[in-house]
Design a protein that fits this description.
elongated; mainly alpha; single chain
Length: about 230
């Protein structure tokens, strides 16, 4: 685990830069935005993950300055929740395909969302994390339900069957994220309450009496000599 963390800290920025260049390259960007499922379920998470990787390059001083305005991760998670809420608006998907300015704002906002999550999640603690997920995940499930049950297309650029499938995926993803987070919280609570295993002390040996050892050795030599003398006679 430590080796993985060290590798993440060392190479995370490089991976983030490579991913950023790849995501903004027109051929890949157009391929990801050609389908609604790729647009919302691949490009959006990829931009967020890239922002998380790039945030790892911040210096300690920069992190401390950000932490002054981000106590318990509240400011960062609030910003991330607002970005995710806007990202689920169907009109945004249509505008991002036809307006370059909207595309740039969308990409930058998702990158900053990932950076905010990276800088805020650990310091938030269980209560603030639960409040954040308690707002974002139901919103995701509701948006997924609307996509799935809407009788007409809410995104003019994508087909109705694509929209319905994305809605199902959003609903399932929200439930899976909630289950994983709750399982991790439960595991951490039970791990803290688990009593530490007492290690039995090693058995102590009495100190060696060297005089007694030498005396026994002399007696053994005398017995051997006596036995050899009797055998010779």
């Amino acid at each position: 685990m430590n080796a993985l963390k060290c590798a993440f800290d060392r190479y995370g920025t490089v991976f983030g830069l490579v991913a950023l260049v790849a995501l903004v390259t027109p051929p890949l960007r157009h391929a990801l935005e050609a389908q609604m499922s790729m647009h919302m379920l691949v490009q959006f998470p990829a931009l967020i993950l890239t922002g998380m990787l790039l945030a790892g390059a911040l210096s300690t001083k920069a992190r401390e300055q950000i932490a002054q305005w981000n106590a318990y991760g509240i400011a960062g998670l609030t910003f991330a929740a607002l970005v995710l809420a806007l990202a689920m608006i169907p009109r945004l998907l249509d505008l991002a395909l036809v307006d370059a300015h909207v595309e740039i704002v969308k990409s930058v906002a998702l990158l900053l969302c990932g950076s905010a999550l990276h800088l805020s999640w650990r310091s938030a603690g269980v209560i603030v994390q639960g409040f954040f997920l308690g707002n974002v995940l139901p919103m995701m499930a509701i948006a997924g339900s609307l996509y799935e049950t809407a009788p007409a297309r809410v995104c003019n650029s994508y087909r109705l069957d694509e929209q319905q499938w994305v809605g199902q995926c959003l609903t399932i993803a929200s439930a899976c994220i909630a289950a994983v987070w709750l399982a991790r919280v439960f595991w951490n609570m039970t791990d803290k309450q688990r009593p530490a295993v007492a290690v039995a002390p090693a058995p102590s040996h009495p100190p060696i009496n060297r005089e007694a050892v030498e005396e026994r050795r002399s007696e053994a030599v005398r017995e051997v000599a006596t036995t050899e003398a009797r055998a010779a006679s």
